[in-house]
Write a structure and sequence with these properties.
Mean pLDDT: 89
CATH topology of one domain: D-Maltodextrin-Binding Protein, domain 2
Number of strands: 14
CATH architecture of one domain: 3-Layer(aba) Sandwich
Helix content: 40-55%
Oligomer: single chain
Shape: globular
Low-confidence stretches: 1-56
Strand content: 5-15%
């Protein structure tokens, strides 16, 4: 019981991240769940959604004597919730022996806390939506008897190629998501809403300043901002913005090949040390601070401000926005609606360091442990149906989250989707360009979102109070290390 309560305490500190589906995402990064703006997990995340969860859920089909499969998700907006319930209804029609019921909540954190309580009451949902940054917490979660709350999807599927007639797609999940969620050689959960951090540029403003392509490096961002802010009708707020969220900091570490934690970013063994004040981390935050000092970066004054930064870009009050790719569809359409061209591109990187790669944000679908064979097979069949090529492609087109399987990517290419919507290919291309290294894969660490909050608070202090970057990050390092030490005291082996 001590470990359960401790885990709930740790999760209470989770400010619902990514990516951004990350997460995000709003987003991702990993991820708030407002990222259809994961916006923003990653990734990836929205604590801002008004709905806190309809416990009655949705029947999504006739119940009768059908076995009920409950699916709890952290999306309550009409588009994403509606998509999920429509797929559940289709599955129920094809499998009348099952009734998948989708219940919405306002954040990943709420989903997990409510699932914990349901597990303690002996009535857990079969499928639980949870964001990438809390993977370690999900792996460590146990019930009152010390049994794991979740079971490995890889183990549960075994060597089957179809379940209840639904083809197994787990082995076709795109590389970036597979690498992030694979632990000890197994995919423990079924990846779903996956994003990365990309940049969105108002090409009308850039072209007016003589810039024909979005800047790719930090130095090019600086030069572009000098030209943009010299325009007689320069954007009213500034040149560029992005949310003050730890996910962006993690992305830049990955780009520079720097691990966030020890033991190969927590992938060869449990993470025990944090590196918040590494030279790479200080370089990134110093660049960020210098942009703000020059009047080019716009800080809204609100931590994790997905809505405010997105609104500034859509109103053309800034020329560039670094954001979660989960909002690609929404931001591209906003440009069309407001009469300007939006172009997506890779997140700018440090030109003085070899580029290693960007990370995912967003969330996955976890399978509850201890289900009957009937329940487990129904849940697994639905998970694979839910991300079959047609469904995964449609989800991507609706939101901007990447197509989660290679077959879905191939289907979209065959249909000419990327020719019609080139912005939609950028996040997948960026993730495909990442090296197969721990830094470019992303960290696995306990109390991750509490650690992100430490980073966010430190960056705000630097931006608002003009404190020394290295000194402030050294202080943040000590705080974050304490967060990790406290977590590992309860869950470390």
């Amino acid at each position: 019981m001590k470990r359960i309560l401790a885990l709930l305490f740790a999760l209470a500190m989770v400010a619902a991240a990514c990516g951004g589906d990350d997460a995000g995402d709003v987003t991702e990064g990993g991820e708030d769940t407002t990222d259809t703006a994961d916006s923003g997990e990653d990734a990836d995340a929205t604590e801002d959604t008004a709905d806190s969860g309809d416990e009655s859920g949705d029947d999504s089909g006739a119940a009768g004597d059908a076995a009920t499969i409950e699916m709890w998700i952290a999306f309550s907006d009409d588009a994403r919730l509606g998509f999920t319930r429509d797929r559940a209804a289709e599955f129920n029609e094809a499998h009348p022996e099952y009734n998948v019921v989708v219940t919405e909540f306002d954040s990943y954190n709420t989903v997990f806390e409510q699932a914990q309580l349901a597990i303690e009451d002996g009535n857990p949902p079969e499928i639980i939506h949870f964001f990438e940054a809390a993977t370690q917490e999900a792996l460590d979660a146990v019930d009152g008897d010390g049994n794991p709350i979740f079971t490995s999807v890889t183990d549960a599927i075994g060597d089957r190629t179809e379940i209840l007639g639904e083809p197994v797609v787990l082995g076709d999940v795109v590389s970036a998501a597979t690498k992030y969620y694979t632990i000890d050689g197994q995919l423990y959960s079924m990846p779903w809403n996956t994003s990365s951090t990309t940049m969105f540029s108002n090409m009308d403003i850039l072209n007016e300043a003589g810039i024909t392509e979005p800047p790719a490096t930090w130095a090019e961002v600086e030069a572009a901002c000098e030209a943009i802010m010299a325009l007689p009708d320069a954007p009213s707020e500034g040149c560029i913005t992005w949310p003050n969220h730890g996910w962006f900091y993690e992305q830049s570490l990955g780009q520079m090949g720097a691990d966030l934690v020890n033991n190969d970013n927590g992938r060869s063994a449990r993470a025990t040390e944090i590196f918040l004040d590494s030279p790479e981390a200080v370089d990134y935050i110093q660049w960020w601070s210098d942009l703000e000092d020059a009047g080019h970066f716009v800080y809204t004054g609100v931590q994790r401000d997905w809505d405010g930064t997105s609104a500034a870009f859509q109103a053309q009050n800034v020329a560039m926005l670094i954001y979660s790719s989960s909002d690609t569809t929404a931001l591209t359409n906003a440009g069309v609606d407001n009469g300007f061209e939006v172009r997506s591109s890779f997140m700018p990187y440090n030109q003085d360091v070899a580029y290693e790669g960007n990370l995912i944000g967003g969330a996955t679908l976890w399978l509850a442990n201890g289900l009957s064979e009937t329940e487990q097979d129904g849940a697994l069949a639905f998970l694979n149906f839910f991300s079959n090529p047609e469904n995964a492609a449609a989800w991507h087109q609706l939101t901007g989250y990447i197509p989660i399987t290679n077959a879905a990517v191939a289907l979209l290419e065959e249909r000419g989707w990327y020719d019609e919507s080139p912005n939609s290919a950028v996040a997948s291309d960026q993730l495909d360009a990442a090296a197969d290294t721990p830094a470019a894969t992303g960290a696995l660490v306990g109390n991750f979102v509490a650690i992100r909050d430490v980073v966010t608070a430190a960056i705000e202090d630097i931006l608002v109070n003009n404190v020394d970057v290295a000194e402030r990050m050294a202080s943040a390092q000590a705080d974050a290390q304490q967060q990790l030490d406290d977590y590992n005291e309860l869950f470390g082996e």
